[in-house]
Design goal:
The protein has 534 residues and is mostly helical. Helices cover 78% and strands 0% of the residues. α6 runs parallel beside α10, α24 packs parallel to α26 and α25 runs antiparallel to α26.
C-alpha cells in the first residue's frame, strides 16, 4: 500500500524501496502460497526499477516473473517493461521485434501491409465518423485488446525512428482496434501519430485537425498513462502551425505527465524537445545553458544516455556562442561508445559542429562537417519534428555559402531544396518560418548575382525576424546582409549591418560570437584604412 501511494506521488525511488522491502519478507514458497501478491509485488517493483533507470534490478525482476508466472497473460506487464527498456537502451530493433512477436501471440498483426493502401484505408475508416462520434465512442473492455494496444503504442515511438515507413501501419492498427473494440488510453497515441504523418506529408490542415482531436480524446479518456507521448507528438505538429513562442510550454506539460506515469524515457524526450524549441525560438543563451545542464543531469540519472550525449552536443554549441571557455562534462565509457557508434548521434554531432563553424565563419570546418552530415543515410523520424525545419534552414544557409565559394552545383541544389521546404512551412506558419524563407531567398539571390532581389529579401528577413521576435535570426540576417554588402563594396551599409548584428547577438547572450564579430570588423576597417581589399 505504501509503495502504491509513493507511485501516485511520482516518487518511484521510495516506492521501489517499499516493494523491495516487501519482497524480502515474502516466504520461501511465496509463489506457490501467495501467487497473486507475489506477481503484483514483483511487477510493481519492476515498473519502479524501469522508471528509476535501474536496469540491473529490472532484469532480475523480469526474469523472476517470466520464470514463475503461471500464464502468458501474467507475464505481459513485465514483458511490456522489457520492451520499453530495450528501446530506451538504444536496442530499438530488438524492442520492435519483441513487441511484434508478443502482438502476434495476442492475435494482432501490425506489419506487412501496403503503406499507401493502409493510409487510404485509415482515411476511409475515419471519414465514416464525426469528431463527436469519435470522442464519445464506447470504452475498450477486452483485457487482451487493452494489452495489445499498450504494445502497439510502445511500438510507434521505436518504429518512427528506425522504420519510419511503417508508422502509418501501426497508427492504423491502433485506430482500427479503437473503433472496433472501443477507445483505450492508447487510442490518442494513434490519432497523434496519424496527424503527425499527414503533416509531414505536407497536409497541415488535416494533420493539425487530428492532433487536436488526439488531445481532446486524451482529456475525454481521463487516463494520463500515455499523455507524455501524445503531448510530445502533437506539440511538434503545433510548432508548425502556431507561433513557436506560444507553444513552448506544452512540452513541460508532457514532461510532467510522463513522470507521473513513470515513463522516464518520454520525460527526457519532452525535455529534449522543449530545450530544442527554446533554442530555435531564440531564448536567452545563459538561461538555455541552465536548462541544458539540468536536462543532462536528469538524463544521466535516468540512464537515458543517447539523449544525454545529444544534449551535451548542443550544450557545447551553447558554450561556444556564450564564449565562457567551459567544456561539457566528459562522457562515461558508455557515453563514448554511443558517440562513435550510434548513427543518429554521429549525424547530430556533425550538424552541431557545422552549425557552430558556420556561425563563426570557419569555412573549412563547416564544409568538412556538413559533408559528413549529408553523408549519413537519412534517418529522419517518420513523424514531423521541429528538427526537420531547423536542420533544413541551417543546411540551406550553409549550402548557399559553399555554393558561392566552390561554384559546385550540388550545393546550390541543396540550398534551393531547403528554400522550397521553408517556403512551404511558411504557408503553414508565417510567424515562425517567414523570416527563414526570406533569408534563404536572399542567399540564393546573392548566389545568382541578382543583387536587387537580394537587397529586398535581406531587408524582409530582418523585418520579419524582428516582427516575430526571433532576435538570434534578426542578428544572423543582419550579419549575412553585411557580408553581401561587403562583397558589393558598400562600406556604409556593411558597417551598419555588422553593428546591428552585434547588437542583436549581444541581446541574445552570444558574447563569444560578439567578440568574434568585433574582431572581424576591426580587421576589415584596418584593411579599408590601409587601402587594402577584403
Amino acid at each position: 500500500r505504501a509503495g502504491k501511494k509513493a507511485m501516485e506521488m511520482s516518487d518511484y525511488e521510495t516506492a521501489y524501496s517499499y516493494f523491495d522491502c516487501g519482497i524480502s519478507f515474502l516466504r520461501k514458497k511465496h509463489w506457490e502460497e501467495h501467487y497473486t501478491l507475489s506477481l503484483e509485488m514483483f511487477s510493481l517493483a519492476a515498473r519502479c526499477a524501469h522508471t528509476n533507470g535501474d536496469h540491473t534490478s529490472l532484469k532480475l525482476l523480469i526474469a523472476e516473473v517470466v520464470t514463475k508466472a503461471h500464464f502468458f497473460e501474467d507475464k505481459l506487464d513485465v514483458l511490456y517493461l522489457e520492451t520499453c527498456a530495450l528501446a530506451s537502451s538504444s536496442r530499438l530493433a530488438e524492442s520492435i521485434e519483441q513487441g511484434l512477436d508478443i502482438l502476434s501471440k495476442l492475435g494482432v498483426e501490425a506489419h506487412g501491409a501496403n503503406v499507401e493502401a493502409c493510409v487510404q484505408e485509415t482515411k476511409d475508416l475515419l471519414s465514416a465518423h464525426t469528431d463527436d462520434e469519435l470522442l464519445n465512442s464506447k470504452q475498450m473492455t477486452d483485457p487482451t485488446m487493452i494489452m495489445a494496444m499498450k504494445f502497439l503504442g510502445k511500438l510507434e515511438m521505436g518504429i518512427t525512428q528506425i522504420m519510419p515507413q511503417s508508422v502509418p501501419l501501426v497508427a492504423f492498427k491502433i485506430l482500427q482496434l479503437s473503433l472496433t473494440h472501443g477507445m483505450s488510453p492508447v487510442s490518442p497515441v494513434g490519432f497523434a501519430y496519424y496527424g503527425s504523418s499527414l503533416a509531414k506529408q505536407g497536409n497541415f490542415n488535416e494533420g493539425y485537425h487530428y492532433v487536436k482531436l488526439a488531445l481532446s480524446l486524451l482529456d475525454k479518456e481521463g487516463s494520463r498513462e500515455n499523455a507524455g507521448e501524445v503531448i510530445l507528438i502533437c506539440t511538434q505538429v503545433k510548432l508548425y502551425v502556431e507561433p513557436v513562442q506560444a507553444a513552448l510550454e506544452y512540452h513541460h506539460e508532457g514532461y510532467t505527465a510522463a513522470m507521473a506515469s513513470g515513463d522516464s524515457s518520454l520525460a527526457v524526450i519532452n525535455l529534449f524537445a522543449s530545450n530544442a524549441a527554446h533554442f530555435f525560438a531564440g531564448a536567452n543563451l545563459q538561461r538555455m545553458q541552465e536548462l541544458y545542464t539540468e536536462a543532462i543531469q536528469f538524463s544521466e540519472q535516468r540512464k537515458q544516455l543517447i539523449f544525454m550525449v545529444q544534449l551535451q552536443q548542443v550544450q557545447r554549441a551553447l558554450l561556444n556562442l556564450i564564449g565562457t571557455g567551459e567544456k561539457p562534462k566528459s562522457h562515461s565509457s558508455e557515453g563514448r561508445d554511443i558517440s562513435v557508434s550510434n548513427s543518429s548521434v554521429l549525424r547530430s554531432h556533425h550538424y552541431q559542429t557545422a552549425y557552430v563553424s558556420f556561425i563563426f565563419r570557419s569555412y573549412d570546418d563547416t564544409v568538412e562537417h556538413i559533408e559528413k552530415y549529408f553523408a549519413f543515410q537519412e534517418t529522419t523520424w517518420g513523424n514531423l519534428f521541429l528538427a526537420h525545419a531547423v536542420h533544413s534552414f541551417v543546411t540551406g544557409l550553409i549550402s548557399f555559402w559553399v555554393a558561392r565559394k566552390s561554384k559546385e552545383q550540388k550545393w546550390y541544389q541543396r540550398g534551393n531544396q531547403s528554400k522550397l521546404a521553408l517556403r512551404g512551412w511558411a504557408d503553414s506558419s508565417k510567424w515562425t518560418f517567414e523570416n527563414k524563407w526570406y533569408l534563404l531567398e536572399a542567399e540564393e539571390s546573392f548566389c545568382n548575382n541578382d543583387f536587387e532581389s537580394a537587397k529586398s529579401y535581406y531587408k524582409k528577413a530582418v523585418t520579419s525576424a524582428k516582427q516575430h521576435r526571433f532576435v538570434h535570426e534578426e542578428a544572423l540576417a543582419h550579419e549575412l546582409a553585411a557580408y553581401f554588402y561587403l562583397e558589393l563594396g558598400e562600406r556604409e551599409q556593411t558597417t551598419e549591418h555588422f553593428m546591428l548584428a552585434h547588437e542583436k547577438y549581444l541581446e541574445w547572450g552570444a558574447l563569444g560570437k560578439c567578440d568574434s564579430l568585433l574582431k572581424f570588423v576591426e580587421f576589415m576597417k584596418d584593411l579599408w584604412h590601409e587601402g587594402g581589399k577584403s
